[in-house]
Amino acid sequence: MKERIRFFKAFLRNPRQVGALAQTSPSVAKEIAKYIDFQNAKCIVELGSGMGNITQKIVAKMPADCALFCFEIDAHLCKQLQKNIRDERVKIIQDSAENLGRYLEQFGFEKADHIISTIPLSPIPYGIIKKILGPAFQYLMPGGKFIQIQYSLLGRKYIQMLFPEMSISFVPLNFPPAFVYVCVKM
Fold this sequence. Notes:
By secondary structure, this protein is α/β, with parallel strands linked by helices. It is built from eight helices and seven strands; from the N terminus they run H-H-H-E-H-E-H-E-H-E-H-E-H-E-E.
C-alpha cells in the first residue's frame, strides 16, 4: 500500500513525466517478458523504471551474465527503486533516457539487446520524444527489440518513424489498460 501511495505522489508532482496514476501491473510485466530473448541477452535497458515492477520480472528471468540498465529520472522513484532492487547485475541510473549511450559505453557495452520503455510519449513534446527515441534506436542491436508501454495509440506514429516493423498487444488488466508496442530494429 505504501508503494502505491509513493507512486501516486510522484504522479501528482509531475504527471507528464510519470504518465500513470498507478504502477505497471504484473500482467503488463508478464506480457513484456514474453518478448525478451532472455537466453541470449547480455544487455537490457529499461527506460522509466519507476519503483521496479517490470524490473523485478526482468531480473528474475535474466541470466547471470546479463546486465540491466534502469533509467529513472524522478529522484523519489529512483530512491525507492534502489531499495526494491538489490542485484549486482542491475545498474540504477537517475538520468534522462537520452543519455543511455554514455552509460552503456561506461560499462563496456556498445549496444543493448532489448530496450523497454514506459516513458509516456503522449504528453511529451515531439522534440523530447526525438531525444529519447533516437538514442534508443541508435543503441539497440540490429534484430533487437524496442518494447514501449503506452496507455493510448497516440504515440505510435513517432515510434513507427524509427521502427516500421511493429506489433501491438493490449493488456486490459492494468490501470489504465495498456498497449504493448513490440518493435524490431532492422
